[in-house]
Specification:
mainly alpha, 62% helix, metal-binding, DNA replication
Length: 368
């Protein structure tokens, strides 16, 4: 597996091209809908062996893998929503593959990626390629790739490599790295995290560049692009009689899936996991948001019970109630927001404007 740096060459029938693209897109949709915690049980248990044997995109490095990836890039790059989905889903697949690597597989991957990026930089004026190649060289430093892999597998805190902090934003946000003069000092135990972000940045720029070119002038590609976007749009907004159903959002998957939440909701989730409490309005906002993105009532109760059964670690959130002592009240409030108690109104999540008004109102109240 590499960063999908070099597109495949040769001839292929339109029928096979469409089959490969359909198989990969449908698998990515399934993969995107399954929480990371579920995937830790393994692909086989999550999807079933029969499903895996027909998923050509799982055969890493094969022509089918390369063809299906690049045809999706071409067909979906012109649509903003579709291209965002493709980037996130491919990044998710990349992360899972990376985590499953043995020491030998990791070594081959790093060596092949370095060689591929070097060829790209030498033969093409690629901004994405230069940025990714720079990160890969900084990761390697003066070491041989075998040494780098050993450092990673041993999860050692020393030695470290240095990269621009923009290439390690998630680790910076978690206060896991040291910053100095715009550079982040990264222990090799976090190598996989850096590679995931590097791949995400590379793929984003490649898709952006592709979207700026007339890549779908061919009528056959335009037709295939329309079909693929139709499959994706049905999944994004399933309607009566069609579409791919989203699996319910489980309480145990919220932390992993929160990376895809809007920043305002991501902030609430992070705050909740940090201090195990939220203010009243924040709790309502997050409950309604989770409801609208597919969390059923039984999972919502489990989600809030899990956090509110822990001791609060903050004196600033105005709530020190415990689930065990207030379970009936909390259960009623959550069921009420789901339209199952009281007037049984089907409440909707707050829009951005409403959240801004609530936030500004809270600020005004706190300053008086």
């Amino acid at each position: 597996m590499t960063f999908y740096i070099e597109p495949p060459t040769g001839n292929i029938s339109l029928e096979k091209l469409e089959t490969f693209a359909n198989n990969r897109l449908k698998f990515l949709i399934e993969l995107f809908g399954v929480g990371e915690n579920s995937l830790r049980r393994g692909f086989g248990e999550t999807f079933g062996i029969e499903r895996l044997t027909t998923s050509d995109c799982l055969i890493e490095g094969t022509q089918k893998d390369l063809i299906s990836h690049f045809i999706l890039r071409i067909c979906l790059s012109s649509d903003p929503d579709a291209s965002v989905f493709l980037r996130h889903a491919e990044n998710h697949l990349f992360r899972i593959r990376l985590q499953s690597f043995t020491e030998r597989e990791m070594f081959r991957f790093l060596r092949k990626t370095e060689a591929g990026l070097q060829r790209l930089v030498d033969t093409k004026d690629s901004t994405a390629g230069r940025a990714a190649y720079d990160i890969v060289l900084r990761v390697k430093g003066d070491y041989h790739w075998k040494n780098v892999v050993k450092f990673c597998m041993m999860e050692t805190m020393n030695p470290k490599f240095f990269i621009p902090f923009e290439s390690a934003l998630k680790l910076v946000a978690k206060r896991e790295v040291t910053l100095s003069c715009g550079m982040a000092s990264i222990p090799y135990k976090y190598l996989r995290e850096i590679l995931v972000q590097c791949y995400d940045d590379f793929l984003r720029e490649e898709i952006k560049e592709l979207s700026q070119r007339n890549s779908t002038e061919d009528v056959r590609i335009k037709c295939l692009s329309y079909k693929l976007k139709h499959i994706l749009s049905n999944w994004m907004a399933p309607g009566p009689g069609g579409g791919v159903e989203l699996p319910p959002l489980r309480a145990v998957d919220v932390e992993a899936e929160s990376q895809f939440f809007p920043p305002c909701m991501k902030n609430l989730v992070d705050r909740l996991y940090s201090v195990h409490r939220l203010r009243h309005h924040a709790r309502i906002q997050l409950t309604l948001f989770l409801k609208e993105i597919g969390m059923p009532i039984y999972e919502a109760l489990q989600f809030w019970r899990s956090e509110y059964s822990k001791m609060s670690t903050s004196s600033e959130d105005g709530c020190h109630h415990h689930w065990q002592q207030n379970s009936r009240r909390y259960t009623y409030n959550i069921r009420h927001l789901y339209g199952l108690e009281g007037s049984k109104v089907n409440y909707k999540g707050h829009c951005c404007l409403s959240l801004q008004v609530i936030f500004l109102t809270d600020i005004q109240i706190s300053t008086h």
